[in-house]
Amino acid sequence: MKKEEKTNVMRVLDAKKVAYASHSYEPDPTMTGVQIAGILGEDPECVFKTLVTQGKSGRYYVFVVPVQGALDLKKAASAAGEKAVAMIKQKELLPLTGYVHGGCSPIGMKKAFPTFVHESAKDLAKIFVSAGKVGYQIELTPADLVKTVGCGYADIVSSENAAGAPEDDYA
Question: Which residue range(s) make up the domain with 48?
């Protein structure tokens, strides 16, 4: 484990008086979300990645899904009320959200975008999301995440072969 430092996400949660636990690890650029879950000693179903998309309308949307799952773009578009959504290009992530690939959090983005958390989170006692910096995760209740971000739950994960889900998105 590496030395803990406060991230913007932690400062936002502190300001809103939301209980959380922070976790850090030595990152490796080849590390997957499932490997991060293993380092944390957690079930991958509790560790979520943050994905940013753009709809046909030009609006941006954020989707929070389990690391072993794949975002279903059709379901995501339906949840957002769009005809279609597509993943943004990696180079667009930092200027749009303030976060880099591998450290994108649904909490504390430069601008609040409509955000959807996969419905599986409702049944969990705790979830982990990026703390806004590569090598840092925060643990909080799904209800606290939803309340803090002002988002809702939706069925947004592909039901096909989740084990083969891409790991190179914005966990």
Answer: 8-164
